[in-house]
Amino acid sequence: MTAQAPSPSNNVSVTRQILSIVFFTFIAFLCIGLPIAVLPSYVHDQLGFGAVVAGVTIGLQYLATLLSRPFAARVADSLGGKRAIGYGLIGIVSCGLLTLLSAWTLSLPALSLGLLLVGRLLLGISQGLIGVATSSWGISQVGAEHTARVISWNGIASYGAIAIGAPVGVLLVDSLDFSVLGPLLVIMAGIGLLALRTRPDVIVVRGERLPFWSAFARVAPCGMGLMLASIGYGTLTTFITLYYLERGWTGAALCLSAFGVCFIISRLLFVNAVNRFGGYAVAVSCMATEVIGLCLLWLAPAPSWALVGAGLTGFGLSLVYPALGVEAIKQVPPSSRGAGLGAYAVFFDLSLAIAGPVMGAIAVYLGYTSIFCVAALLALSGVGLVLLLSRRSRRS
């Protein structure tokens, strides 16, 4: 018997339910984006610390997110997505208050920096809580058959929020002062908490609770494919400016815009392809597209070719996360969905952590052009891994 296609009205209803949940992802990542572009100059120019300390201030948040994944997964599975999001929003409120105190203690640089770093730690933990909880809650709300759509919309909300928040934060700080950021974070998180109060409580799924590292082992094959593909994203965002400088070109920011626009367009247009063709098939085709894009960046004779390469990289990478995520979540019971989502996200975190130092070391010896060749080879090895996983899945 042929499965009946879902009606348009049902599709609209599902999308509305997903958007009502990923709204909290948008709030969280808007709060992450607002300070991200102004923190380095604040730490370096106003507090008087070096570039290393400025880098640590930014990186500490992502380290906290990575290390808090097991905790976030346990909270989402045992207490439900609503409560996990609430704790995350309270963490953002605390970050906002500490950021404001940091601005008020500018005359005491060490104290100001310490307050800022504690705030960044709380923001990182909040990111982990809300990221896992919204995905887990969304899948529970609309059904496991819409896993790809939930993950895709979550990604659109997070990337879109950072794209909006970063320039807005720069404009506000330039127009007013750094002290405006703290209250703004408190207000945005407060709006999220008020909206959360109107949502009904989430029914916690009963059943087997896998330890985080057991879930990690189950999703690791798909996670490795995600990591091999995502290193290209970390390479592009970290080194595209230096790559352009080495080639004597201008307009590196356009590459990031091309990547982001194509990434979002791909998710909006083709997210249903995961349900139609299967996660592994979509991941293979998307990763192959990413390989072509990275090769164009490697071999680009002119900026226009690099722009096309960045667009293809974004277009291809866009659906890898939800496509492999669908297959990864099948490996854990519904009662441990938060643990599975958190463990899967660790591989994306690791890809960003690895891309900077590894590709930077390669660039020192071989130049910035070569790093896109290496990223393409890693993505190609990811295609091979996913093909093996697909074959194994068909046999079983």
UniProtKB/TrEMBL annotation:
<feature type="transmembrane region" description="Helical">
    <location>
        <begin position="21"/>
        <end position="43"/>
    </location>
</feature>
<feature type="transmembrane region" description="Helical">
    <location>
        <begin position="216"/>
        <end position="245"/>
    </location>
</feature>
<feature type="domain" description="Major facilitator superfamily (MFS) profile">
    <location>
        <begin position="185"/>
        <end position="396"/>
    </location>
</feature>
<feature type="transmembrane region" description="Helical">
    <location>
        <begin position="110"/>
        <end position="139"/>
    </location>
</feature>
<dbReference type="Pfam" id="PF07690">
    <property type="entry name" value="MFS_1"/>
</dbReference>
<dbReference type="InterPro" id="IPR050171">
    <property type="entry name" value="MFS_Transporters"/>
</dbReference>
<keyword id="KW-0472">Membrane</keyword>
<feature type="transmembrane region" description="Helical">
    <location>
        <begin position="305"/>
        <end position="329"/>
    </location>
</feature>
<keyword id="KW-0997">Cell inner membrane</keyword>
<feature type="transmembrane region" description="Helical">
    <location>
        <begin position="341"/>
        <end position="362"/>
    </location>
</feature>
<keyword id="KW-0813">Transport</keyword>
<feature type="transmembrane region" description="Helical">
    <location>
        <begin position="251"/>
        <end position="270"/>
    </location>
</feature>
<keyword id="KW-0812">Transmembrane</keyword>
<dbReference type="GO" id="GO:0005886">
    <property type="term" value="C:plasma membrane"/>
</dbReference>
<feature type="transmembrane region" description="Helical">
    <location>
        <begin position="277"/>
        <end position="299"/>
    </location>
</feature>
<comment type="similarity">
    <text>Belongs to the major facilitator superfamily. YhhS family.</text>
</comment>
<feature type="transmembrane region" description="Helical">
    <location>
        <begin position="368"/>
        <end position="389"/>
    </location>
</feature>
<feature type="transmembrane region" description="Helical">
    <location>
        <begin position="49"/>
        <end position="72"/>
    </location>
</feature>
<keyword id="KW-1003">Cell membrane</keyword>
<dbReference type="InterPro" id="IPR011701">
    <property type="entry name" value="MFS"/>
</dbReference>
<protein>
    <recommendedName>
        <fullName>Uncharacterized MFS-type transporter CCOS865_02983</fullName>
    </recommendedName>
</protein>
<feature type="transmembrane region" description="Helical">
    <location>
        <begin position="151"/>
        <end position="172"/>
    </location>
</feature>
<feature type="transmembrane region" description="Helical">
    <location>
        <begin position="84"/>
        <end position="104"/>
    </location>
</feature>
<dbReference type="InterPro" id="IPR020846">
    <property type="entry name" value="MFS_dom"/>
</dbReference>
<dbReference type="GO" id="GO:0022857">
    <property type="term" value="F:transmembrane transporter activity"/>
</dbReference>
<keyword id="KW-1133">Transmembrane helix</keyword>
<dbReference type="InterPro" id="IPR023008">
    <property type="entry name" value="MFS_YhhS-like"/>
</dbReference>
<dbReference type="InterPro" id="IPR036259">
    <property type="entry name" value="MFS_trans_sf"/>
</dbReference>
<feature type="transmembrane region" description="Helical">
    <location>
        <begin position="178"/>
        <end position="196"/>
    </location>
</feature>
